[in-house]
Each structure stands twice: as C-alpha cells, then as structure tokens.
Design brief:
single chain, about 450 residues, alpha/beta, TIM Barrel, 2 domains, nine-stranded mixed beta sheet, six-stranded parallel beta sheet, 13 helices, about 30% helix, about 20% strand, globular, DHOase/Allantoinase_Hydrolase, allantoinase activity, cobalt ion binding, metal-binding, Amidohydro-rel
Length: about 450
C-alpha cells in the first residue's frame, strides 16, 4: 500500500507545483496532480495534506564534523543526526578529521562504521582523508566506499589529520584522479596568514577585536590556494571541490577555470551568507571560523556568485565543540574573549535552512533555488544523486515539510545538537521545519524526534 503527501508547493527539479508525492516501500513512486491519484495502479492507503506548507527534497549536507569516534563529547552520530532531522536534512557526509582515528585508512573507516551503527536518525556517508603520508590508502578507501577525499593546505587544528603540502598532494593526485572521486580542499595557504599574524603580534593588536582576527586570515590566503588548486586540476585532471568559500575575490578565477572546462565545484556556508564582519562585536568567539566571516559587501558578492552559478551549493560546515573551547580559561581578565585562543567552528545543522531562506526572501531567490543549493547539488557532489536530493519517482522518499511563511526566534531548544551554543541565538528567522521524512518514516515533527534511529550508511551505486 502507498501513502500520498499533498501540498500546493511541491519543489521538484522542474519547478514548484501543486502535487501529490506518492510513496511506497520507502521510495517515491509518483509525483502527480491530486485528481490523478485515483487512476494510479498502486492503491493509496493514506493521504496527508499539507496545504501551503512546502514539500522540499530532504536536504543533503556534504560538510559536517560529527567527531565520532574519539571526540563524541564534541558531538556524535546520535546528536548530530537528531539535529539534522530537526533541520530538514536527511543525509550527512562526515568529514574525516576531528574523529579518532581520523578516516585516512580503510581500518579507520570501519571503526567509524561500527561507531555509527544503530545511532543515526538520518542517512550518512564519510569522506576519506588525503593527508601527508597516506597516498597508498587513497584507492583502497575509494574501493571501500568513500565518496571522495578531503585535504587541508594549512594546519587543520587537530594534530592527527596532517596538512598536505604541494609535493605530498601531487603524490596523491594520480590516485585521486584514477578514483574518479572529488578532492575537497580547505583552500587557505599558510604564507599570507603567517605574515599577517606576525605583523599583528608585532603591533600588539587586540585579539578580542574581530577585526584583528579577520586581518589575520586575509583574502590572499584563499585566493592563492585556489589558484594553486586550479593549476593542479588542469595538470592532473581530477575533480576539484572548494569547501567553504569565504572570499568573493576568488570568484573570477573560479569562473574562468570553469569556462575553461575544468571540473570544479564550489560551496559556501550559511555563516558567510548571513553574517557580516562589521556587525560582529568584540570577544564574540561564537563567530570564529576559518576562513573568517568577511564584510557585508563580500557577503553580497557571494550571493551574486550563487546567482551566477559560480558557487554550486550551500552546506553547513557544522563544526561543534564543547562550550569551554569557545571561551577558554584565561589567566588574565583582559584575555577573556580572545579570538586567537578560541576554537574555530560554527554549529548550524538545525537552523541552516531557515537562515538561508531568510536571506533568500530578502534577495529574491525561490524555493527552487534553495532546493538546488541545499539538496540536489550536494547529492551530486557525493555521487548519490540517483538516490537522494530530488523529489522524483525512483528516489528515496526523503523530504521535509517546510512552512516558508512562518517565522520564529532561535532558542536553545531548537538546536538539538550536543552543546546548544550558537551565534544565531536570539535571531528572528523565516521558515519553519514541521516534519522530516526518511524513506517514508516520520523522523521529526513539530520540535520532536518521533522515531527510533532509521538512518543507514549510503553507498555509491
């Protein structure tokens, strides 16, 4: 027997339409007009009507730090996937660092799989790591099922996941190219950052000021790294993905490389598309991330990059930590709120959708744009576009019921991840997630996780 979910706004790859989404055995079997239901070969057992609440494809987040195994006190599969379900996400792809062991070998991948078992409320996968000395593990990781690889061109903040220099990277690129999988790059180079930081320390700059932190990670660090990766992409012919683009000054280089035919995709994140450096107060460590949140004018240009198709997708870079790491203990009162001492990362799984929809409404973008940026494009990057990322017959019945006309104020009870701290607290946002369905199971409804863990690890078909 099948169920039909009706809405006046079903967001499909060809546009938003009034339709019924018909689900049987966890799959979408039809998307049709309400008056066509009676003519379907499959009998309808139950019908649910959502009126003007939109049915969006379940969101896909390809940039999440779940931190399990090893640092589960930071987050963990159980809490991260609950937060994801509350935010309208049905698939997460976990980054290979911040967990212990880091996901740089097949053995480490199996440890992660064991840790996830029975804990996930949404589906998941794990990127593999490309680090200084694991070139021989690249193809085995690909064969074991990772959808791609992540590397850092700068120290990543955790000792076990080593940055990769150009020589080490070039030793890995033939295997990455052979795998056919994307390489996700944290694109900042240390040279401009080291130079800027040394100058700030010589000038006794105040590290409580956000302007000091911003100056310590200049646009040039991103621009130079992206230009390096474009050259390597041209030479080694691998799929390149730039993670968390923060500087709009790199857009022209990326657009030119794409016009040349290079296989490059780009993401940005809610915090770069919502906040502005000028509005961040002194000691506001909750806003610290790397690359940093830049100016309001830069934010506007990133949105232009999305509009032009130079930026392909929006993902969270959900990077939680224990609260004390955001405000570390200090010996002197004047060191309270120093941004150079705080952990860099912003957690946003439960609120990313309304954050972006709030901006979409201001800027004239549609639910169709939102679904492309936050569902279909990330699913394509991870190689699961035939399973997730769209409301189409044959896809998994993953969708979220979303009221784009409602508003709410962000409070801690809306966050659902392990440590309810957020730079979004107190903000009024537009768009409310009312329900999330995973393969037809109702996993979240009106603020409550409603089912036992039903998530599973996805595999490339």
């Amino acid at each position: 027997m099948a169920q039909a979910y009706l809405s006046n706004r079903v967001v499909t790859p060809t546009g938003t339409v009034a339709a019924a989404v018909v689900v049987e055995a966890g799959k979408i079997v039809a998307v049709c007009a309400k008056d066509e239901l009676a003519g379907l070969a499959t009998p309808i057992d139950r019908t649910m009507a959502f009126g003007d609440r939109a049915i969006l494809p379940g969101l896909v987040d390809t940039h999440v730090h779940i931190n399990e195994p090893g640092r589960t006190e930071w987050e963990g599969f159980y809490t991260a996937t609950r937060a994801a379900a509350a935010g309208g996400y049905t698939t997460l792809i976990d980054m290979p660092l911040n967990c212990l062991p880091e996901t740089t070998t097949v053995a480490a991948l199996e440890v992660k799989r064991a840790a996830a078992r029975g804990q996930t409320f949404v589906d998941w996968m794990s990127w593999g790591g490309a680090v200084a000395d694991n070139q021989q593990h690249i193809l085995p990781l690909a064969m074991a099922g990772v959808p791609g690889f992540k590397c850092f061109l700068i120290y990543p903040g955790c000792d076990g996941f080593t940055m990769i220099d150009q020589q080490q990277l070039e030793a890995s690129l033939p295997a990455i190219a052979e795998s056919g999988l994307p390489l996700l790059v944290h694109a900042e180079l240390a040279g401009p950052i080291d130079e800027a930081t040394a100058a700030l320390r010589s000038a006794n700059a105040d590290w409580r000021k956000y302007a000091t932190y911003l100056a310590s990670r200049p646009d040039e660090a991103e621009i130079d790294a992206i230009r390096l990766m474009i050259r390597l992409c041209r030479e080694y012919k691998f799929r390149l993905h730039i993670v968390h683009l923060a500087t709009s000054q790199a857009l022209d280089d990326i657009a030119a490389a794409r016009a040349e035919g290079l296989p490059i995709t780009v993401e940005s994140c809610p915090h770069y598309l919502h906040f502005a450096a000028e509005e961040i107060g002194d000691g506001a460590t909750l806003f610290k991330c790397a690359p940093p949140i830049r100016s309001g004018a830069n934010c506007d240009q990133l949105w232009q990059g999305l509009s032009d198709g130079v930026i392909d997708m929006i993902v969270t870079d959900h990077s939680p930590c224990p609260p004390e790491m955001k405000r570390p203990a200090v010996q002197k009162p004047e060191d309270e709120g120093r941004l150079d001492l705080a952990w860099g990362g912003i957690a946003s799984l439960s609120v990313a959708l309304p954050v972006i929809w709030t901006e979409c409404q201001k800027r004239g973008f549609s639910l169709d744009d939102l679904a492309r940026w936050m569902s279909s494009a990330p699913a394509s990057l991870a190689g699961i576009g035939d399973q997730a990322g769209a409301i189409l017959p044959g896809r998994d019945a993953n969708f979220t019921v979303f009221d784009p006309d409602a508003s709410f104020t962000v409070t801690t009870d809306a966050l659902h991840y392990r440590h309810p701290v957020s730079p979004y607290l107190g903000e009024q946002l537009y768009g409310v997630v009312h329900a999330t369905y995973l393969r037809g199971y109702l996993v979240f409804q009106d603020g409550v996780i409603t089912d036992t863990p039903q998530g599973r690890e996805l595999t490339l078909s």
